């Protein structure tokens, strides 16, 4: 069996592309120097593939910012507001990616969106009514030739026409169907051109095919490929799917004359069943996604062989492949100096995954796979204990009963009790938790982490910051205060570091968008809490004020969704373990006199399945339950808040109400408050604080503007249920804009309050 990867990370093992791009943006690096960095990275990545004997080496998986944006530029999909700036091509590209403010004009960036169920974000192409889709770019051809110079006949990777049209935004009256003719011509030309350049294979990525498809979608798919495939000459065409299975279009796809079809056997729960049930054409190549492109655990070879043995029955040619692009995992475990081999041997990052493909190639070539050294080593690895089990944690999870997920008394009774106890004014004002993390705060944390100052010194510093923050909030006149989160670098990492069961990496960066990378912790074992994590700071903060101080925690679903999860237990089990640990913290805060506790679920939507029919059974049923477990043990008068970082939850609004929090704050200011109607229509019971201003921008909102937002909300939301707050934490902002913004917020709330 041959081997392939779908795509490779591009930011560089030491984030070279990030730093080079940022320097270029600052004007410190020239365009030629930036291009040199890119050339070097591509070369290194190709060489890596050669070293691992990969047969199908991708090209055009590189990008200066995003592959969807690359495809838009390739196809002449450049909105007029950017083309009219008359910038050079690279500048225009970055103008679309990041916005542009300069001599030639002032435009915002294109919208960015989550790439399927990953934490990568793509740029949403905008198609205007007079956009003329045509093949105008040369990037894929240039990179193909660049690889060819190294002696590699690469497999160019292009986002497919169907996915491109499905993800693009149509700004006028036209829709996808109006552009199919042109896009077919463009992709057909692309095929011809690659044919002339001597490409053996070309890969069209069509992840959109794993979504719920309508009859119209399927008709569109058939139309597009029915015609593009007519242009095929000797270059073979691979239709690559990932992030799920093709259950809505398997038969259509396998009937079309593609030369190869890429299926995902990791996230595609139905992939194997589809192949078994409908068969797979023996004259096509099956690119079998058996090495996980998203998680970092080693592949279990004996299990993979079981899948491959099934696939062999189709008599199709099989290529060993990753389940999706390796973009979603870090580069290499080799860079991790802190982790010992005992841990490291369980992980495979991008480079090690190529090694796994090579191992599998060797193993499958043998008549006696069980005798191959790599196979034996792998089997042993999965047989040995990882020493990650905590029987008491497992027992606690398995002894949970339905009652543990129900908070008493019911919402409406609590609401009355709390109204009486708290005596908060109408439209209470608050913030989401963090206050600006100034250079001083970050520097202190860094010297503490490097062992240059003692814990005592560090704690004292944080307490000083808390005291300043409390005084500031009192001066501004906020009603419910926060401690400011100065001790936290990140809302997940902080808790991960306090809990048992997590591992941390040093250089395991994964691209989130553009030049931004994240470094998710790894969930290694059963999770437990051996000591209080926030109680000291919160109790201290409360001691400084007569106003209510909110305890501030991160919820189990968010902690799980922003980490690399285990594969040996279910996500549900893991979420419940975290929930039990956070629950202990909630109860300890309560026991120490903290009356209001916020449990953030910023990333609740992150792992929502891509198909609606899976939403509940595969995710929401346990995710919402895990959250309920965290707070079901508190007294009636303890007020539980939660916070979510997005505004699109109209489709899961009932589930969010079912979380049974007392108050929820969320982002809304950028989405024109549309969510307010949804809340109104569904009779949302939880009190709400839709953000009245956008903290993602340095702009200071005026009092009038905030008043207007509050008045607009009051038209749809009962006044007893409305809170007034910004739309997210303030940690990325500076004090210069934060203080006047919050003052305007409080003034606006007070003015509206007086008028009621
Ligand atoms: N409490 C966190 C903060 O204020 C919430 C962050 C978030 O929603 N991403 O920073
Ligand atoms: Zn948020």
Automatic annotation (TrEMBL):
<feature type="binding site">
    <location>
        <begin position="15"/>
        <end position="18"/>
    </location>
    <ligand>
        <name>5-methyltetrahydropteroyltri-L-glutamate</name>
    </ligand>
</feature>
<feature type="domain" description="Cobalamin-independent methionine synthase MetE C-terminal/archaeal">
    <location>
        <begin position="427"/>
        <end position="750"/>
    </location>
</feature>
<keyword id="KW-0486">Methionine biosynthesis</keyword>
<feature type="binding site">
    <location>
        <position position="600"/>
    </location>
    <ligand>
        <name>L-methionine</name>
    </ligand>
</feature>
<dbReference type="InterPro" id="IPR002629">
    <property type="entry name" value="Met_Synth_C/arc"/>
</dbReference>
<feature type="binding site">
    <location>
        <begin position="432"/>
        <end position="434"/>
    </location>
    <ligand>
        <name>L-homocysteine</name>
    </ligand>
</feature>
<keyword id="KW-0489">Methyltransferase</keyword>
<dbReference type="GO" id="GO:0003871">
    <property type="term" value="F:5-methyltetrahydropteroyltriglutamate-homocysteine S-methyltransferase activity"/>
</dbReference>
<dbReference type="InterPro" id="IPR006276">
    <property type="entry name" value="Cobalamin-indep_Met_synthase"/>
</dbReference>
<feature type="binding site">
    <location>
        <position position="728"/>
    </location>
    <ligand>
        <name>Zn(2+)</name>
    </ligand>
</feature>
<feature type="binding site">
    <location>
        <position position="114"/>
    </location>
    <ligand>
        <name>5-methyltetrahydropteroyltri-L-glutamate</name>
    </ligand>
</feature>
<feature type="binding site">
    <location>
        <begin position="432"/>
        <end position="434"/>
    </location>
    <ligand>
        <name>L-methionine</name>
    </ligand>
</feature>
<feature type="binding site">
    <location>
        <position position="606"/>
    </location>
    <ligand>
        <name>5-methyltetrahydropteroyltri-L-glutamate</name>
    </ligand>
</feature>
<feature type="active site" description="Proton donor">
    <location>
        <position position="696"/>
    </location>
</feature>
<comment type="pathway">
    <text>Amino-acid biosynthesis; L-methionine biosynthesis via de novo pathway; L-methionine from L-homocysteine (MetE route): step 1/1.</text>
</comment>
<feature type="binding site">
    <location>
        <begin position="516"/>
        <end position="517"/>
    </location>
    <ligand>
        <name>5-methyltetrahydropteroyltri-L-glutamate</name>
    </ligand>
</feature>
<feature type="binding site">
    <location>
        <position position="600"/>
    </location>
    <ligand>
        <name>L-homocysteine</name>
    </ligand>
</feature>
<dbReference type="GO" id="GO:0009086">
    <property type="term" value="P:methionine biosynthetic process"/>
</dbReference>
<feature type="binding site">
    <location>
        <position position="485"/>
    </location>
    <ligand>
        <name>L-methionine</name>
    </ligand>
</feature>
<comment type="similarity">
    <text>Belongs to the vitamin-B12 independent methionine synthase family.</text>
</comment>
<feature type="binding site">
    <location>
        <position position="119"/>
    </location>
    <ligand>
        <name>5-methyltetrahydropteroyltri-L-glutamate</name>
    </ligand>
</feature>
<protein>
    <recommendedName>
        <fullName>5-methyltetrahydropteroyltriglutamate--homocysteine methyltransferase</fullName>
        <ecNumber>2.1.1.14</ecNumber>
    </recommendedName>
</protein>
<feature type="binding site">
    <location>
        <position position="643"/>
    </location>
    <ligand>
        <name>Zn(2+)</name>
    </ligand>
</feature>
<dbReference type="GO" id="GO:0032259">
    <property type="term" value="P:methylation"/>
</dbReference>
<dbReference type="Pfam" id="PF01717">
    <property type="entry name" value="Meth_synt_2"/>
</dbReference>
<keyword id="KW-0677">Repeat</keyword>
<feature type="binding site">
    <location>
        <position position="667"/>
    </location>
    <ligand>
        <name>Zn(2+) 1</name>
    </ligand>
</feature>
<dbReference type="Pfam" id="PF08267">
    <property type="entry name" value="Meth_synt_1"/>
</dbReference>
<dbReference type="InterPro" id="IPR038071">
    <property type="entry name" value="UROD/MetE-like_sf"/>
</dbReference>
<feature type="binding site">
    <location>
        <position position="645"/>
    </location>
    <ligand>
        <name>Zn(2+) 1</name>
    </ligand>
</feature>
<keyword id="KW-0028">Amino-acid biosynthesis</keyword>
<keyword id="KW-0808">Transferase</keyword>
<dbReference type="GO" id="GO:0008270">
    <property type="term" value="F:zinc ion binding"/>
</dbReference>
<feature type="binding site">
    <location>
        <position position="728"/>
    </location>
    <ligand>
        <name>Zn(2+) 1</name>
    </ligand>
</feature>
<feature type="binding site">
    <location>
        <position position="18"/>
    </location>
    <ligand>
        <name>5-methyltetrahydropteroyltri-L-glutamate</name>
    </ligand>
</feature>
<comment type="function">
    <text>Catalyzes the transfer of a methyl group from 5-methyltetrahydrofolate to homocysteine resulting in methionine formation.</text>
</comment>
<feature type="binding site">
    <location>
        <position position="562"/>
    </location>
    <ligand>
        <name>5-methyltetrahydropteroyltri-L-glutamate</name>
    </ligand>
</feature>
<keyword id="KW-0862">Zinc</keyword>
<feature type="binding site">
    <location>
        <position position="643"/>
    </location>
    <ligand>
        <name>Zn(2+) 1</name>
    </ligand>
</feature>
<dbReference type="InterPro" id="IPR013215">
    <property type="entry name" value="Cbl-indep_Met_Synth_N"/>
</dbReference>
<feature type="domain" description="Cobalamin-independent methionine synthase MetE N-terminal">
    <location>
        <begin position="3"/>
        <end position="314"/>
    </location>
</feature>
<feature type="binding site">
    <location>
        <position position="667"/>
    </location>
    <ligand>
        <name>Zn(2+)</name>
    </ligand>
</feature>
